[in-house]
Amino acid sequence: MTYWSVWVRREWLAQVMSLGKYLTSLSEETSMSPITAPVAPSSTQTSPTAAPRPMTRAQRDRLTSDLRMACMRIARRVRFESDALVAPHQFSVLVRLEERPSTPKDLATIEKVSAPSMTRTVNALVDLGLVARADDPTDGRQVILSLTPAGLETIKETRRRRHQWFASRLETLTDDERALLVQATALLERVAAE
């Protein structure tokens, strides 16, 4: 497993953790657990552990949409509200270079951006002293990019700030809400692995 895949998984888990509050509020508003349909109160229903009815197609569609949007909002907030030292797209390039040195062309392909866009990003990172350029010893036309010590420190500090930002949000949750997030994390990991 590459460092990038571990980092992506950690990012995903961080996003999932904040969904608990949303899922709890949704279940309180609709009397619906995150994975079941609402159950109407009934005089024949005496046990609080009675099996819920399956979700309707409309309920599954709403859950799909709401969950997708919540994940996107969390990802965006983690990236933008944690006092980042560099822009999210620059941080992504730094993390790629943490895995291994690379060429601008390879980075553009991996990040799915145009070569000119990656050149601008790399130039900015070089100007900040976070990335170093070196000639490729096997191909004089290529440039190899690698992290500088300042680049590595920027990655560590950005991760620390993101973690701190998210941890402060989790502190506002109850123990029950955090337990719900543990369950949601397991479910979302399973979904992400399929």
UniProtKB/TrEMBL annotation:
Database matches in PROSITE patterns: HTH_MARR_1 (PS01117), HTH_MARR_2 (PS50995)
Swiss-Prot/TrEMBL keywords: DNA-binding, Transcription, Transcription regulation
KW Hydrolase (keyword) present: no
Location of the HTH marR-type domain: 60-190
Region (Disordered): 34-61
Top-level taxonomic group: Bacteria
InterPro entries hit by this protein: HTH-type_Bedaq_tolerance, HTH_MarR-typ, Tscrpt_reg_MarR-type_CS, WH-like_DNA-bd_sf, WH_DNA-bd_sf
Annotated SUPFAM superfamilies: Winged helix' DNA-binding domain
PANTHER family per UniProt: CONSERVED PROTEIN, HTH-TYPE TRANSCRIPTIONAL REGULATOR RV0880
Name of this protein: HTH marR-type domain-containing protein
